[in-house]
């Protein structure tokens, strides 16, 4: 089955700086890569996703890049703010009509230092 | 607005008890999922269902079963709870041809 590795497990950055979280996946058939944000005590929520026919996607301060050849994808957050502090999870799946479960990475605890 | 609810936020059970965790979604989603979340391990898929009465094993189905008798409801069953099943359990749902999964608030289960 699919295996997703995520690094780093903890990331501390100064407010206003950029943060980058990296993930690798093992199954070359995976073609859908979402990122979820989980604030303390709350449920995970989708913040951005990318499909394998796209190399990069941006949404305001958040961007995701995908390198299918190397089987890795990354989350980039620019101009970090205190509300960006959370645990971020990457995931991968094979699109098959939306029924497939996601394989998640172990998560990155992002800490924004004031 | 999608709403996924779970029957309990906190649950304490004894070893060997049969445990039912209920999940309900109100958006007519075809797909429903059960994950468990443990510190340092992320979210791991236990079971999922893409239709009423249909179920598929995820990555860690051992010790669990599921039931989906109605489209809006997906139940996770621990036939004989064990201490290593102490965890946060998250339910999620998604529409048939989209891929965003909407999560419930979670049930923190403690087995003593």
The most extensive interface, with participating residues per chain, is:
A-B, 25 and 28 residues
- Structural shape of chain A: globular
- What is the assembly state of the chains in this entry? heterodimer
Low-confidence stretches of chain B: none
Count of DSSP strands of chain B:
11
Keywords:
heterodimer, A: 114 residues, mainly beta, six-stranded mixed beta sheet, B: 112 residues, seven-stranded mixed beta sheet, four-stranded antiparallel beta sheet, 53% strand
Protein architecture, described:
- The complex is a heterodimer of chains A (114) and B (112).
- Chain A has 114 residues and is mainly beta.
- Chain A has no helices and eleven strands.
- In chain A, strands 2, 4, 5, 9, 10 and 11 form a six-stranded mixed beta sheet that branches. Chain A has a five-stranded antiparallel beta sheet with strand order 1-3-8-7-6, with no helix packed on it.
- In chain A, a hairpin with a 4-residue loop joins strand 7 and strand 8 (72-77).
- By secondary structure, chain B is mostly beta strands.
- In chain B, 0% of the residues lie in helices and 53% in strands.
- Chain B has no helices and eleven strands.
- Chain B has strands spanning 4-6, 10-13, 19-25, 31-38, 42-49, 56-57, 65-70, 73-78, 87-94, 102-103, 107-111.
- In chain B, the strands form two sheets. In chain B, strands 2, 4, 5, 6, 9, 10 and 11 form a seven-stranded mixed beta sheet that branches.
- Chain B is globular, with a radius of gyration of 13 Å.
- The model of chain B has no long low-confidence stretch (mean pLDDT 93).
